[in-house]
Amino acid sequence: xxxxRVQAVAALSATQNDIPAEFIMSEHSRPSSTTFMGPIPxxxxxxxxxxxxxxxxxxIADASREWxxxxxxxxxxxxxxxxRLQKVGNDFFQLPIEEKEVYAANPSAGSLEGYGTQFDKxxxxxxxxxxxxxxxxxxxxxxxxxxxxxxxxxxREVNEEYTKYMLPLVDEMFADLSTGLGLERxxxxxxxxxxxxxxxxxxxxxxxxxxxxxxxxxxxHTDMSTLTIILPDQVPGLQVSKDEHWIDxxxxxxxxxxxxxxxxxxxxxxxxxxxxxxTTVNKEKARLSWPLFVEPPEEKEIGPLPQLISGExxxxxxxxxxxxxxxxxxxxxxx
Length: 335
Prior knowledge:
single chain, alpha+beta, four-stranded antiparallel sheet, 9 helices, globular, iron, leucocyanidin oxygenase activity
């Protein structure tokens, strides 16, 4: 069955100054009526070059308790590499539709890897204004290069180089989050699957939208991952829920955005918060983002760490295989 991509919908809608009804959010979800317009609190920005490692770890833990999201600067990923990653991603989405469809995802075959459109609707049947490219980048044994674009020619090289910088950064985040719980540095990573964890790169492409007041790039959700590390572009759009308000995340040059996902919340027994977030769209400009999802192995059982459970602090979450958690989350079933 042929799928109409949002990029194509956007091209048709641009001439009409309107969008199809399935993209129009309900009144209580529309960004025009729900975005907080008061003074915006600053999302924590953490300098990883700070030689006081204890201070850095404390800042990461505090931000994860209070916000579930923070930005990191001086993260060691070269600015030149970031620009190359952004260029090959943007270049892919500028290809003719026939070239992109060669890499189309096939959900009916049980795979979400490849080029696609946000297939799942929200609980009210509304669609998100986004297309994507999605594939595993690590471990090497799980990578399927058939869904990696061959055009641009440097796509594979750039993504593999970026992944090499992500591995130690993720290790650092896990270690600091573990010490923030009073645990050994390797505790959370080991509980999440250690070196068998899976890293998935997604490029979200949000085309210009003639009615950004009515649509959302992605509807509100938390990530089912352990951590998500996002490379944004300069077009604003990410919003987080804080104190029952939707607030814009300010763009910080050369920063990476770190989300706490559901599995970290579960393992920490609710000490760290999986951040509720969504994305808005822009009338004039396309927006792209590069989230990297770090997930446990499918068969790995995830639950609150025993060290964090006591008579005074009972377990708040069930212990469950990640594949079962994933199934419930995707199909919007209770956990």
